[in-house]
Amino acid sequence: MSLADFTTSLRPAALLACVTLSSALVGCDEGAGPSAPGTIDWEWDIPAHFPTPRVPAENPMSEAKVELGRYLFYDEGLSDDGTMSCASCHHQELAFTDGVDRPTGVTGELHPRSSMSLANVVYNGTLTWANPLLTTLEEQAFTPLFGENPIEMGNRTLQDVEAYLEAHPSYPQQFAEAFPESDEPVSVAHVLDALASFQRSLISANSPYDQYIAGDTDAMSESAKRGMDLFFSERLECFHCHGGFNFSSSLTHDQLLISESGFHNNGLYNVDELGSYPANNPGIYEFSGEGADRGAFRAPTLRNIAVTAPYMHDGSLLTLTDVVEHYARGGTLTVDGPNAGDGANNPNKSAFIIGFLIDEDEVDDLIAFLEALTDEQFLNDPRFQDPALDAP
Amino acid sequence: MNRLHRLATLSFLLTPLLVAGCDDDTSSDAPIEDATDDTDSGNAEDIDITLFFDALANGALISEDALVPNIGLEDAGEGIEGGSFQIDDFRFYIHDLTLVDADDNEAPITLEQNAWQYDNVALVDLSNVERGSGNAEVNASVVGTAPAGEWTALRFTLGVPFELNHSDTAVAPSPLNVTAMAWSWQGGRKFLRLDGQSGTGAPVFIHLGSTGCEGEITNITSCQRPNRRAYELPWDGRSTAIGVDIAAIFDEVHLDVNTTDTPSLCMSGPSDPECEPIFTNLGLDLSDGVTPVEGGDDLFSILPVPD
Q: Does residue A2 surpass a pLDDT of 70?
C-alpha cells in the first residue's frame, strides 16, 4: 500500500471528534470587535503585504492550541520508541527542514522524499511534495505519526498515543485548556488540531526582501536587487512557479477563492528518455494516472531557501549553485545508473524551463537575492522553539 | 454600425457587498459569496444579464482538453501547413461591460460581486486543465444587471482597468488575487493568458498585459503601452453566448517558430517579432498599445440563439 493510499483511505474514528468540535467556538469576539476568520484569541502577526491565512472552521486558532502544539511538536514521546519528534526532521534553525537529502524513521526506513520547510506552511495550496488531495495540516499530521509506508514516527494505534498523553504530568491540563468545550480533550484528533495550529503560527515575513518591500531601500544589497530583477525576468522565468509573496505558485489564503495548486515538472529526471521519473517518486502521476503528470511536484516556497539545502524533492541537488545550473541548462543530465537520462529532454517538463544564458556575476546576484529571503528572526524566534529551551 | 471609439468613463451604481458583523465563513472550500439582490438596489426595470463564454476554433465549439486542428501554422516536417493546438490554460479579464443602443447611448452592466467578479472586472476561465499553472476551476459566465432598453450592441474591454491593475496581487480581492494571472511583480495583471502547445510539441504562451510601466512597485504611475482593447458586438438582447475564437488569435501565426531569447510565443514584448501578428489579430498596436487597429473582429462573436 503506498503512502498515498494510506492518507486518503484510512479515517480513524477518533478524527470524527475533530469534526464535531462545537461550531460555537467559531464566532465573534464581540467585546474586541471583529477578529480574523478562524481565530478565537489569536492575532496574526503579518505585514501588510501578506494576506490573512485560511483556517478551517473546525479548528480555529487560539493561543492555548498553538502552545500545546509547540509542546507536542518537540515531544519525542509522540513516537513509538520515544526517539523522534516532529522536530527530528523539522529543525527551526533550518527553517524546519533537516539538512539531509532524505530522512529516516524510527525503524531506519528511508523516506523517498525530503523534509519540507514549515515556514508559511499555512499558505500552501496543498501539502507535501506531490499530493493534490492533501489540503489541511490536520490531515497531514496523521501521516508522520502513524504512516506505515514508510514508517516515520512509528505509532501503531491511537490508544498507544492517547495512553501516553493521559499519563503525562501536564498534557491533560494543557489539552483541557486548549479544548475547553470538549468532553474528551485528550485525543489524537486534538493532537492533530494542536499540531496544525502550531504550524499555522510559523509565519516567516521579515527577511531583507520583506523589509525592502515595506520601504527600506537599503535592506537588500545592490547585488541582491540585481538578482531580484533576474528572478522576475522573462529570461529566467523563476517567478512563474516561485512567484507571489510566498515565492510559490501553490497558494491558499482567506481571500483566495480561486485555487492555485502549482505542480510542475522541472526536468530533474528522464529515466529511459521516455519522460519517466524514478519509480519511488512519480510525482502527482501517482494520483491522476495521467502521463503528463509524471514528474510533477509542488513548487515549494523559496523563503529561507539558503538554509534548506539540499534541494529538490529528493535532495539530489546539493547547493543553490547546482540549482541555478540545473535551470540554466534546462534540466539535469544523469549520466549513468538506474535513473540515467537527460531531464532537459523530458517531454512533460514545464515549458518555462528551456534553459537560459547567465554569467558568473549574474549567478552571484541571483544567489544574493535568494539569500535575501532568509528571515533570521523566524529562525531564532523563541515562540517557535523547543519548550525545553524556554527561559525558566 | 457605430464605429469603436474610446469608452467614456462612467460612474455607476456598485452593489455593496453584504458585510456581516463578523466573517465566520472559514471553511477551506469557501463558497462563492452570495450575491446581493441586484433587483432591489437599482431601477425596477433592470434586466438580468448572463453572458456565457465558449472557446471556439474557426467558428466551431471545441473541447478545451483536445488537440484542436486548423490553428495557426506549424512545420511537422513536411513543410509549413495548418497547425494544431492544445490548451493548458485559458483565462482572461474583461471590464467595463456596456450596452449600447442605435443612437450610441450607453448603459453599464453592473456586475454581480462574487469570487470571479470584482467592481467592473470579471475573470473568465475556459480551461479545466490542471497541468502546470492551470487550475481545475472553469468560469464561463459573467453575471450582472443593466437598465432595460433598446440595446443593439455590447461593448467590453479586454483587461483590468489601470486603477485596479497595479494593486498587490497578494492582498487584492478575488479575482484580482490569482497569482497565475499576476504579471511578474510590478506590471499588473495578465489580461489574457493562453498557454498550450502546438501539435509539434512547441510551447505556446500568449500573455497580454501592459508594458513599459513606470513608478515604484507600490505606486505605478503609468504604462507606456496599456494594451487594452475594447470590442463591440452586435447584440439582440436575447443571445447569451459569446464565442472566443483561438484560431483568430493564431491566424497566420507560426506556432513553432520563436525568435531566440524571446518568450515563446508572445508576452507582449514590444520588440518581439512573434508578437506582431498576435497583436494584429487581437486588434492592438504592438508599438504603442493604444491605437486600435483593424483586426480583432473575429476574436469575439455573439453565438446565435438556437431555434
A: no
* Chain A residue with Cα closest to B173: A255
Residue with cell 478565537: A40
ipTM for the complex shown: 0.78
Q: For position A194, what pLDDT does the model report?
A: 98
- Quick one: cell of B163? 486603477
Contact A56 B217 (CB under 8 A): no
Closest B-chain CA to A238: B184
Task: Give per-residue burial for B128-152: e unless 16+ CB within 10 Å, then b.
Answer: ebbbbbbbeebbbebbbbbbeeebb
| Residue owning grid cell 450607453 | B106
User: Which of A193-197, B102-106, B166-170 has the least mean pLDDT?
Assistant: B166-170
Predicted pLDDT of residue B44: 63
pLDDT digits (tens, 9 = 90+) for A31-52: 344 578 888 889 999 999 999 9
Q: Is the peptide bond before A150 cis (omega within 30 degrees of 0)?
A: yes
pLDDT tens-digit profile of A59-107? 999 999 999 999 999 999 999 999 999 999 999 999 999 999 999 999 9
Amino acid letter for position B271 = S
C-alpha to C-alpha distance for A172 and B168, rounded to whole angstroms:
45
Contact check, Cβ <8 Å, A239/B184: yes
Contacting residues for A391 by C-beta, under 8 A, at least 6 apart: none
Other CB atoms within 10 Å distance of the CB of residue B37? 9
Scanning A75-120, the segments in alpha helix (DSSP H) are: none
CB contact at 8 A, B64 and B129: yes
Closest residue, chain A, to B20 (C-alpha):
A34
Whole-number Å distance between alpha carbons of A169 and A190: 17
Q: What integer pLDDT is reported at residue B261 of this predicted model?
A: 78
| CB–CB contact A258 B263 (8 Å) | no
Comparing CA positions, the residue from B192, B155, B224, B160 lying closest to residue B5 is: B155
CA nearest A298: which of A123, A132, A142, A122?
A: A132
Residue A138 has what DSSP assignment? H
Q: Reply yes or no on whether the pLDDT at A17 is more than 90.
A: no
